Each structure stands twice: as structure tokens, then as C-alpha cells.
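Researcher: Let's do a round of design. I'm pasting the C-alpha cells now; please hold your answer until I've finished.
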């Protein structure tokens, strides 16, 4: 499991990474010829998202320190950066927040001449990244989606559908994410609507479905402890991220755990690597981005978390672990867009779900 580092430790780790990205010539074509003056790289990334083994490899290969800090939501990332941040170089926002941060002048423009592994990135993923398909400000890190984990020892018969949350026989044994766009997006997809709709009637229909059919059967909305709760068998069905669940559960429980993305679709995400405006260790940040898209490194990253290698084509041939879900399961998902002022429609709906019922 990846550790949550304090800001102080993050600065220390990032230092090592910056050194590592220094002027070593690499066989794989990463940005090896660049003169590196920094020895620390300050990274702000999602919890459960970069294996320690990859951070250590980066530090060792380039003689640097990576200072690695984590956040649990885009909102947390954004709020911390607006409050002044702590000197991060490289951040990992989702697509809708990339759009917001670009509009607010928070990101450096990507100098593609410093990245030799961009050709490894799947053009299909770039096509989906409508917020920045030319990678002017963001280089895709991972394309994926939340889904549903089921304990099949406790729930032997089930339908692979969001409708599972309507099952009254599982009342008190299920959770959904405490995430407005995710949960409303699931309901919208189930009803046949876009996860980015700004039609008030469609959003109201999704709200009513959640309030009347899903919420009464949930123990709670939970974006933090659902993996541990599933591991302890307090929850038998959880909406969430595969990597969080599988990081927590025992080998015994893995034998009777199924994870799936419902065929109705749902919200998807592309998390990207972005360099913050005014970053002090820009060259090292480029080196890290290129390092991640080295095929062997990307294969190791996705194997560690049981992901398909969605964003890096050559890495697919190097994978050693069968993913917990497949690229085919992502065919019907839809990226969450920045809906601008219409976000208030979602805010209002979510308030009635979380507070008003």
C-alpha cells in the first residue's frame, strides 16, 4: 500500500527524485540529456496511485529525492493549491480540474521537445481528453473508472448493474462514494443520460433515483474507508476504485471478490501529470513524466494496482498481472467535464441527497 507522506517528508522524497532525473544518460530515451541542477522533485498525487517501488527506482536511477504528498479528492488538491500549496512541482488532477486550472493560469505549458515517450500514449485516450487533446498542459497518467466490488461469498447472486444498490436484502451492507459527480453520474448513466448533462429534469431524475431507491439501502456514503470496510466484511458491496479495495483485502477475500464496471457506463476519469506554474524543478518534472511513460515502468505501475495499461500502448505487452477490470469495460464510460456554472445544479441535487434526503 502506498503511504501518505506529510508535507515535510514529501519535500524530502521529491529532492531525491530531482537528483535522479539529473543528467544521467538512459537507455530508454527518457529526458537524459538535460542538464539538471535540482535534486528534489515535489509531487502532489492521489492516495493509492504511484507504487513506492517506482519512486525508489526513479530516485536510484537519477540520483534524486522525490518528496511525495497525497490528496484524496480533486477538491482537496485545488483548495490546497489556491491556499498557496507547499511548493509542488508536479500535480495529478483529473480532466475537469485540468480545465479549471488552465483557465486560471495555474499550469505551465508543456514543452513536448523535452518528452521522448509521448508516442507511447494511446491516441484513443487523447481523443477522450477533450479538455486538452494536444497535451498542451497535461500528459495523461491513467484512464479509468470507479466500479463495484462484490463479496461473492456473502452475495452469491447479483446483476452487474448499478441497480444492485436498489436491493433491499442488502440494506446496511452497501456503500457508495461520498462524491457528488460520481454518484449522480452513476444514476444518470443508469437512466440513459450523460454524466455531464445540464438538463435540470435529468439531474432531478437522478437525484430522485438515488434518494428513493439507492440511499435507503446504503450504510453510508464513504470515499475513504470503503476499502477497509470491505476487507473487514462490514460492507459486502461497495462502489469505489479497484486499487483501493484490492490494496486492503486478504488473499482469501480476493478469491471471492468480483470487481466490475456496469455496462450502463458511468463517470470515467483521466488523471494527468501537470507542471504547476512557477515550479522550481521543471526539468526534473519532465524527466519524471517521461520516466512514467517508459513502457517497463508503466507496466509495473499498472500491474501493481491491477489496472489495464490504458494510457500506454507498448506497456501492454510487458504486463505480468491480469487486470481487475478490462479495457473493454471502459467502452461505455464517459469522462466528467467541467460544466461551469451549471455545477450548481449538481450541488443542489447533492445537498438534498446528503442532507435533505
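Researcher: That's everything. Go ahead.
Model: Designed sequence:
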Amino acid at each position: 500500500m502506498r503511504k501518505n507522506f506529510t508535507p515535510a517528508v514529501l519535500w524530502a522524497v521529491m529532492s531525491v527524485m530531482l537528483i535522479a532525473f539529473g543528467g544521467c544518460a538512459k537507455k530508454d530515451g527518457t529526458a537524459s540529456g538535460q542538464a539538471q541542477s535540482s535534486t528534489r522533485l515535489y509531487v502532489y498525487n492521489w492516495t493509492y496511485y504511484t507504487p513506492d517501488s517506482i519512486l525508489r527506482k526513479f530516485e536510484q536511477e537519477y540520483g534524486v529525492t522525490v518528496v511525495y504528498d497525497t490528496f484524496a479528492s480533486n477538491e482537496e488538491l485545488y483548495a490546497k493549491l489556491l491556499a498557496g500549496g507547499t511548493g509542488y512541482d508536479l500535480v495529478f488532477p483529473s480532466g475537469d480540474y485540468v480545465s479549471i486550472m488552465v483557465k486560471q493560469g495555474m499550469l505551465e505549458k508543456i514543452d513536448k521537445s523535452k518528452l521522448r515517450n509521448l508516442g507511447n500514449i494511446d491516441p484513443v485516450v487523447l481523443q477522450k481528453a477533450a479538455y486538452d487533446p494536444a497535451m498542451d498542459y497535461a500528459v495523461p497518467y491513467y484512464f479509468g473508472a470507479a466500479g463495484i466490488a462484490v463479496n461473492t461469498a456473502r452475495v452469491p447472486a447479483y446483476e452487474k448493474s448499478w441497480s444492485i444498490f436498489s436491493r433491499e436484502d442488502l440494506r446496511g451492507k452497501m456503500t457508495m462514494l461520498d462524491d457528488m459527480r460520481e454518484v449522480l453520474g452513476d444514476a444518470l448513466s443508469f437512466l440513459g443520460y450523460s454524466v455531464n448533462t445540464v438538463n435540470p429534469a435529468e439531474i432531478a431524475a437522478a437525484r430522485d433515483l438515488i434518494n428513493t431507491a439507492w440511499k435507503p439501502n446504503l450504510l453510508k456514503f464513504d470515499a475513504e474507508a470503503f476499502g477497509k470496510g470491505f476487507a473487514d466484511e462490514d460492507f459486502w458491496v461497495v462502489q469505489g476504485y479497484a486499487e483501493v479495495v484490492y490494496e486492503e483485502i486478504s488473499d482469501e477475500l480476493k478469491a471471492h471478490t468480483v470487481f466490475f464496471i456496469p455496462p450502463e457506463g458511468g463517470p470515467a476519469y483521466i488523471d494527468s501529470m501537470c507542471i504547476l506554474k512557477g515550479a522550481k524543478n521543471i526539468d526534473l518534472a519532465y524527466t519524471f513524466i517521461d520516466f512514467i511513460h517508459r513502457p517497463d515502468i508503466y507496466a509495473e505501475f499498472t500491474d501493481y494496482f491491477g489496472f489495464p495499461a490504458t494510457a500506454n500502448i507498448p506497456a501492454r505487452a510487458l504486463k505480468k498481472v491480469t487486470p481487475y477490470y478490462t479495457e473493454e469495460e471502459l467502452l461505455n464510460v464517459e469522462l466528467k467535464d467541467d460544466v461551469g456554472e451549471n455545477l450548481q445544479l449538481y450541488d443542489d441535487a447533492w445537498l438534498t441527497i446528503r442532507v435533505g434526503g
